[in-house]
């Protein structure tokens, strides 16, 4: 059973400060978000909106990489296959950097 909240805390904000809080909150209710923030519970980050064109291009790249990887796994191992695998790892690292910058 949860404890009922009976205590009230009032704070004064400027209109700009209030708007800033409303824009930054990651919960539907401002009070819930402020409680988590103030009491040390880590508020969950809300994902940022991402450019749909970027997602589309990343998806296309991923599909191409999967096709290359599938081909490498079906073909006998050769030096060319090893070089392709190394190139794929390099591309994967670059894609991860792009995704990290998007966060």
TrEMBL record:
Entries under InterPro entries matching the protein: NikA-like
Pfam families: NikA-like
Record protein name field: MobC
Organism of origin: Gordonia cholesterolivorans
